[in-house]
């Protein structure tokens, strides 16, 4: 069917395409490794900054909250969801110590922690945070008007995520 020269040309073209594809894949892997190294270096830098701030200011200084949040973001980019969750939990504790237990300022941190826990598959923590957030919003009347409604909608969205992501025996809880 094919002449020998056509078959040879096709093989040359295919070999060239394969070589180009392998070169592209190799370049992409190198770029990812560089990005990973940069992320890891940034993460280590943030950890060092946190250690220095803790040494000079103490472990419960409100100024630590910003670096804890940055370190949590860095941990998420490195798929270290458990570490990120622990960092946000610590930030929440500092915030509660400095601003009080029943403040609206903690809600964005609670929601961020819930998102990280859900992404990491830790639905036990998500469920605990959802119960606490509901208690805070409804029982302690933290927030009112549109802010309250927006936070309840966000809580409902997590319940919808739980229907698909939580353990089978817990999914009915998310429908209530």
Task: Tell me about this structure.
By secondary structure, this protein is mainly α. It has two domains: about 1-100, no CATH class; about 100-175, no CATH class. The protein is built from seven helices and no strands. It has helices at about 5-55, 65-75, 80-100, 105-120, 125-140, 145-165, 170-175. Helix 1 runs antiparallel to helix 2, helix 2 (about 65-75) packs antiparallel against helix 3 and helix 4 runs parallel beside helix 6. The longest helix has about 55 residues, at about 5-55. It is flat.
Kindly state the percentage of residues in helix.
Answer: over 70%
Given helix and strand content, the structural type is: mainly alpha
How would you characterize the largest beta sheet? none
What is the percentage of strand-forming residues? under 5%
In angstroms, what separates the terminal alpha carbons? 68 Å
* Strand segment count: 0
Q: Number of helix segments?
A: 7
Cα shape: flat
CA gyration radius, whole angstroms: 24 Å
Overall number of structural domains: 2
> What ranges have pLDDT less than 50 throughout 5 or more consecutive residues?
28-32
Overall mean pLDDT: 85
């Amino acid at each position: 069917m094919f002449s020998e020269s056509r078959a040879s040309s096709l093989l040359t073209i295919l070999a060239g395409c394969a070589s180009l594809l392998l070169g592209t894949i190799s370049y992409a892997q190198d770029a990812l490794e560089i990005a990973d190294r940069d992320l890891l270096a940034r993460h280590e830098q943030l950890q060092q900054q946190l250690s220095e701030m803790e040494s000079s200011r103490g472990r419960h200084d409100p100024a630590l909250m910003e670096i804890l949040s940055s370190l949590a973001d860095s941990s998420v980019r490195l798929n270290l969801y458990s570490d990120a969750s622990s960092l946000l939990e610590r930030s929440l504790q500092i915030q509660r110590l400095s601003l009080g237990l029943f403040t609206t300022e903690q809600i964005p941190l609670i929601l961020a922690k819930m998102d990280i826990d859900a992404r990491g598959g830790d639905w036990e923590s998500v469920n605990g945070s959802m119960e606490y957030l509901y208690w805070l919003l409804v029982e302690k009347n933290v927030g009112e008007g549109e802010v309250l409604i927006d936070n309840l909608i966000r809580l409902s969205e997590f319940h919808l995520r739980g229907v698909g992501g939580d353990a089978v025996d817990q999914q009915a809880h998310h429908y209530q």
